[in-house]
Amino acid sequence: MPDVFPRGAFALTLLPWLEAEFNDAREQEIMRCWCSGMLRALKEGPLLPLAPGVEIYRFTWIPSSRGALVIRIENLGPVHSLHVKVSGLEEGTLAVDRRVLLTPTQWQAVRQHLEAARFWSMDRFFTPRPVAYLDGSEWLFEGGREGRYRVLSIHSPDPEGPARPIHDLGAFLVELSGITLARGELY
Hints:
Helices cover 24% and strands 32% of the residues. By secondary structure, the protein is of the alpha+beta class.
């Protein structure tokens, strides 16, 4: 099966306080295979190659305690859409698979959250602290526009630290999708 992510996409992983963790080739390959498998299970393919004039973003939330969720937002000229999928209880099934049209105001709100999170411009990170994780979730944000592609992989972004805008972006996308999560469930 083809990979969903390009080679080198997982050279850098971010920890909850935006600490940078650089992955060697083996770690990158493990992460790329694992995340590609998750997205294929959600019936998602690669975002690349990008069609001219298309702007696309995908948020994938892979928690340790429940099924994964993916939210893809596309800007195709005057049409803005959101597609949300949630994995089902049985392998290869989807509990949720729906597409909704976004208003221009909602699309602008998405772009404002992307800017606040510095999705395209973030390039400064903190030094990792010695921490071991026994639980958590993987947050993947991908984007493509104007011939550029970026993926940010962050483990359980801390909503109270420097990763707050990233956490807020994910929470906003979940809210926009209409998926209801209990308070504190998006970790």
